[in-house]
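User: Can you help me understand a structure? I only have the sequence.
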Amino acid sequence: MTGHWVISATGVISAAGAGGEALHQALCAAAPLARPAGDDAPGLFTASLQDFKAKDYIQRRGLRDLSRTSQLACVAAFPLSRGLENADPVDVGVVLGTGWGCLESVVDFEWETCSLKPRFLNPLLFAETVPNVPAGQISIFFGWSGFSLTVSCSGASGLEALRDAVELLEEQRSPMVVAGGADAINVPALRVLQSDGKMASTAPSLPMGRDRNGIVGGEGACLLLLESADHAHGRGVQPLARLRATAGRSDGGGDGQTGPRSANIANVLRELLEQAELKASDVDLVASSADASPADGEEALALHEIFGEGADAPLVMTPKGILGESWGASGPLAAAAAIECMRTGQVPPRPQGFVTDPHLPPLRLPSETTNAQVRNAVVLARSAGGQASAVLLSSPGAC
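Assistant: Let's start by predicting it. Here is the structure, written out as C-alpha cells:
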C-alpha cells in the first residue's frame, strides 16, 4: 500500500439507524439491540432493522424488487451519490464485501421453482440469485461504471473489500472507489449456526466478557468513498480520515471453523503497523471484531501481545456487542464508528451487563463513554475460516 488514500464520505445503515452519527450514539448508549427473532425461529436473537423500507431512504422506482441485501447496499450508497453528482461515472468503481450475498433469494427462488407452475414464477427473483448482484445494483442505480467487484470472505468480507479497493486505486483503475460491505439477516442460515451451538441462546451476547454466549445475528451496510488526498482536494472535499494501511492473511493451520489463531492476528497487526510506519503506542483505539464466540480469546491474546495493557494501551470497543454480527458489513461499520470517534473525541463503552472475563488478558474496555483524542485507530475483522484482516485509520489532521 503506497498511496496517500483518504476516506471522503461514508454511508451507513444498521440496526442503530442511518448515518454515522446514529451509529456512534447507539454504541455510546451501550444498550445491545438484540431481540428475539420471532416465532419462526425460537431461541434465536437478532439485531435487525425494524420496519425497514428502502423507499424511506431513496425515492426511486425498482427498489421493491431487489433483495434485502441489495436494498441495504443501495441505501448505504445513497449519501455517497449526493457528493458524486458531477463526477464522471467511469471515474467511480464499486467493491462490495458480503458474507451471505443473495443466499436467501436463491432459497426463495428454489422454493418457487419446486412448488409453483413456471408461469407463476417471479422472473425478478431470479435476477437476485447471483452472488455479485448487490454490487451490480449499486452500479446500476447510481450509474457508476468504473468497475464492479464482489468479495466474499465471511466476517472479513468488508475489510477485504477495502483492501481490494486500495489495490485498484494503486493500479489506477479508477480515481474513486465506493467500497464496504452489506449483509441482511438470513434466518434459515442462522438456524443452521444455531444447531451447531454458535448462536447466542440469550441476549445480550457480550463480546470479550465473562458471560459471552455466542453470536447474535445482525444486518446492515456501510460504504466508504476512497480516493487520493490530492483528488479529494481537487474536488474541494475535506477528508474524514486517512486510510493509512491495510493488512490481512489466512490462517492455513486453523480448523476452518473457530477463526484465526492469535499468532495469525498478531502477525497481521505487526504488518499493519509496519506499513503505517507507526509504533503500537501510537494507536489510540482498536475496533475489535469480537462477537462473543470462542474466537474472542484468540483476538484478546493477540491484542495484548501487540499493544500490552494499562494506561499506555489503546482503548478497545466491541461494536458487535451492540449491533450483532453483520458479516460483510461488520468491518466497515466498525471503521465508520472509529471515524466518528475521531470526529467527536468520544469512545463508546463496553455493552451494558459486561463483566470482565478473568481468563482473558486485560484490555482497555472502558466502562463509560470516554473522552479521548483518537489520532490512529485499528479496525479488525475475522472469519470463521481463519482470515484475519485489518485497516489502520488516521484522523483528518494526518491527511
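Now, to help you interpret it: The mean pLDDT is 91. The chain has two domains: 5-234, 244-398. Let me know which part you'd like to focus on.
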